[in-house]
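Lecture 7 notes: from sequence to structure.
We start with the chain below.
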Amino acid sequence: MEKLKCVVPERLKRRVEESHIDDLPSLSSSLLQLFLSLPQFHQLISELAAEPSTQAGLCGKNEGAALDLKQKGNQCYSSGDHSQALRCYSQALRLAPIDAHHSGKNLVATLYLNRASLFHKMGLPMESLRDCSRALEISPCYPKVWYRRGKVNATLGNYEDSVHDLSVAKDMEPSIGGKKQIERELDMLARHHEKTTAKPASQKSVEIPDVPSEIKLQCVKTPDKGRGMVSQFDIPQASLIHAEEPYAVVILKHCRETHCHYCLNELPADTIPCISCSLPLYCSQHCQVQAGGPIHIPDTMVGSNFKPTLECIPEHKHECQGVHWPAILPSDVVLAGRVVVKTMEQKGQFTDVPNLSETLGLCESYSKMSPESKLELHIYSIVLLFCLHHSFSSELSINGDSASQIVILLSQIRVNSIAVVRMRSNTNDSYDQQDWFQNFSFGEAEAASSVEQVRVGQALYKAASLFNHSCLPNIHAYFMSRTLLLRTTEFVSGGCALELSYGPQVGQWDCKDRLRFLEEEYFFRCWCCGCSEVNESDLVISGFCCVNPNCSGVVLDNLVANCEKQKPKVPETISNKSHLQVHELNDIDIKKVAQISLDQTQSSFHVDSGYCLKCGSYCNFASRSKEVKKAWTDFRRLQDSIASKDTCSTNLPGALRSLGLLRSILHAYNKGIAERTFLRRHFVSLVILSQLETIVKHPLRYWKSSMAPITLQLDMNWQSSHPFS
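Predicted structure tokens for the same chain:
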């Protein structure tokens, strides 16, 4: 895309820079005519949208490569390298055409059988059972698969199913020796096991809760925030107020190998590829069909248990057949393509891109964007239009009007799309090695783990886009599969605005960082109560402590002080409103950290950087900042040790000394102090659990080592001197 930017003449770039929404059709037409005259543009479209049969495909099926991976997987299986064998079989399944045959057997069915055998060997019977069933859906007359499924059902205790599967395998087995072996298996089942009711091997379904009927929301318009949602009646804390499926959603690139491309949940070991291309991976056949539509159920699978009543959203169908652009273009551009295709299919017209603003009802941000971003949107809109013309509908007109509609859509996605997140816990890997370590606790050395939100997808939710932002939100967004759910975090009175956080929140970011993020990403200046009123969190989150050891006041640097000066007012009462985030500060109030900065009427706030806001003592920022910077370096080493799971204690003493230094310089409620204290605890837990595991496995060798007691003693000494860390 950079090459296309470079060939745009300055005259057109100036038009882009000065353009508004009304200028888009003519401007898009001019850029379209320019690109049509460029050979490099046609080469780009050829690479993005051409069929894989005409070139070395990135996302197409490849029978030869699948056979090579199958052979390599067999070799790894024989040598005992099960993890590598699993990778080979799964990658071969992505590349194998559904109608390919090898040695008289369907290649995909054979690969599922091989992977099922591997799962059975690895002690994963449920995964093995599912792969056997997938193989039988493709090749129902494959005796080896019936035999394998019978063995797996016996492992699971499903003896009726096991007898049935082994009986079918015996009837299909052509060799006399094979039939006798299966008969012996059946005799063993009859002698040693009583028949039991078969247990269905179905995956757990996600039940989305319903919004209570008494919850009534209303869309209103205000002069400062525009459209927004309010509650018509009082809503209790923790109430579900909204649930919504996405209008369109796409997985983010960095999660393509780890999460399902439809439901966005973490992938199991027995992944399922797309039938027609090698890009998506799914967690189940349900997601595979939902993503590709009924067209993705081939004739070879007519005997399967797919339900024709399944409501399919074929969001991947136009991206399929191995074309490259869904893998190469940015996620928001691929999302725009899904929105365009869905809207055109709903309207039943495929010649022009419809007016998406009327369909979606979303606000746009084009006029507020930088010239560089505007030009980028124009280029991507034209490229996407050509890709959809090749992959979706050859009737789709390529003109300035259609391109301008995609420009508007991309600007809407920039400010209205919601990141679909999953919770990830970073728990010590030592716990996974032995079950009893999972439940072990040893005072301060008990399991140290953190939970964080990880972005896995990007989606458009039409109704949820009406909820405005607040850095002190009263509702919280979370996800079940692709479904967005909103719950209240506190009691909300009737008529009050319902506001969620677009990312930054009081207590997590300081005010200047929140304002900068919202202005850069969403093009508005936040005037919520967290950004317009002085609050304790913004004062202490990155503050320094007073040089007077008996003073609890906070000292601000120049950037934070300037931001606080711009806040127009101080809350009427010193303690903040009842927002849950503020309660994390253990009832610290403004007076305790900034008493002299409040005048008697509490109508203004006086801030001088470098001076304590409680006693007025001066702090030398230059020297203190250098010390803090050096201390962070030691903690980065400790963080690297944790990331590499290096339980050597050589990095710990320096980190402990740095933490003590930081405690003497930074305010007690500085966010960095809390994060570094957690890192120290996490590292100590790794060290102690590693040493305890050594005691269990090699007690004599452990007690001969002098390093372990030193490490334990080091942490105990630290605990005695810092009991509240």
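Points to note: Residues 63-192 form a domain with the Serine Threonine Protein Phosphatase 5, Tetratricopeptide repeat fold (CATH 1.25.40.10). The chain has 29 helices and 16 strands.
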